[in-house]
């Protein structure tokens, strides 16, 4: 079995797992707040999802990231990104700037997200595609959290052959201790774009990383990614990424992320964002 066949088989398995998890919510009804303590003996119901709890279901420590916020929460997130790319046999460096606007709404164990923005490169300005995403979180066993979901990427960026794409996600987070987690995930994209000059494919992305809460308000992580391009003749990208999260106030947080492609002479990106809890 060659690499493309293995990736295609992995994609089918991931899609099956995503659909299975999205339809299996009833299996965890006996533990409504998913803290590992059955409702019948839980003395502190509705604890936030990432809080570690004792045998009675009451909070021991609070470790919160935006995706694990309290129920019925709406967050607006503004971001800026800068990237540069120099191919091995090229002398010119391509620089790209981007701005993004994202709305995340959390309701019970569901996430609903909308994202759009703009791009600037080669003295050109363009809108980005618009992505609508839905995901659900599960805690099938103690210390393990799963986040399957899917998204539609609408072609609001005007370019020839640009069509609506479909993305499937499956990510996992396992708590090694009260403040350290290992995480990983897989993304598969059904790419429906059309290109007359290059053969396109359905790309996949794998990632694995380690995160640590240095305090209740400061978190940092490091990950390694294997990413396919939408172009079939481009080798798999090997990318290392480091990011930080800082909760400035109960309503305001900041994030920063740096990524570097190992295989490229120069291909890295830097991003900053600010998030605000509207409620």
Q: What low-confidence regions span 5 or more consecutive residues with pLDDT below 50?
A: 21-29
C-alpha geometry: globular
The CATH homologous superfamily is named monomeric porin ompg
As for the number of domains, it is 1
- State the assembly state of the protein chains: single chain
Q: Note the beta-strand portion.
A: over 45%
Kindly describe this structure:
With 279 residues, the protein is mainly β. Helix content is 7%, strand content 51%. The protein has one domain (73-277): Beta Barrel (Porin), CATH 2.40.160.40. The strands form 2 sheets. A 12-stranded antiparallel beta barrel has the order 3-4-5-7-8-9-10-11-12-13-14-15. Strands 1-2 form a two-stranded antiparallel sheet. It starts with a helix and ends with a strand. Residues 21-29 have low confidence and may be disordered.
Spell out the blueprint of helices and strands.
Blueprint: H1 3-22, E1 52-53, E2 59-61, E3 73-86, E4 94-107, E5 110-121, E6 124-127, E7 130-136, E8 144-154, E9 165-175, E10 180-190, E11 204-213, E12 218-227, E13 237-247, E14 252-261, E15 266-277
Antiparallel strand pairs: 1-2, 3-4, 3-15, 4-5, 5-6, 5-7, 7-8, 8-9, 9-10, 10-11, 11-12, 12-13, 13-14, 14-15
């Amino acid at each position: 079995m060659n690499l493309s066949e293995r990736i295609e088989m992995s994609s089918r398995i991931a899609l099956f797992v995503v659909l299975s998890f999205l339809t299996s919510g009833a299996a965890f009804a006996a533990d409504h707040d998913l803290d590992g303590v059955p409702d019948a003996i839980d003395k502190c119901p509705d604890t936030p999802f990432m809080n570690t709890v004792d045998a009675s279901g009451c909070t021991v420590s609070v470790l919160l990231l935006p995706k694990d916020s309290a129920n019925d929460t709406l967050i607006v997130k503004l971001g800026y990104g800068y990237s540069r790319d120099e191919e091995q046999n090229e002398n010119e460096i391509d620089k790209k700037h981007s701005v993004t606007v994202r709305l995340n709404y959390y309701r019970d164990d569901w996430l609903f997200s909308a994202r759009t923005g703009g791009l600037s490169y080669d003295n050109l300005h363009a809108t980005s595609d618009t992505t609508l995403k839905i995901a659900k979180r599960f805690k099938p066993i103690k210390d393990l959290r799963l986040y399957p979901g899917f998204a539609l990427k609408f072609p609001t960026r005007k370019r020839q052959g640009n069509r609506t794409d479909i993305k499937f996600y499956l990510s996992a987070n396992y708590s090694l201790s009260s403040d350290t987690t290992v995480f990983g995930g897989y993304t598969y994209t059904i790419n429906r774009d059309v290109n007359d000059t290059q053969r396109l494919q359905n790309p996949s992305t794998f990632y694995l990383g380690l995160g640590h809460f240095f305090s209740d308000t400061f978190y940092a992580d490091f990950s390694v990614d294997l990413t396919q391009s939408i172009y079939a003749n481009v080798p798999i990208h090997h990318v290392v990424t480091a990011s930080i999260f800082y909760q400035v106030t109960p309503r305001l947080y900041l994030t920063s992320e740096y990524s570097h492609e190992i295989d490229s002479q120069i291909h890295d990106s830097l991003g900053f964002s600010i998030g605000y809890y509207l409620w």
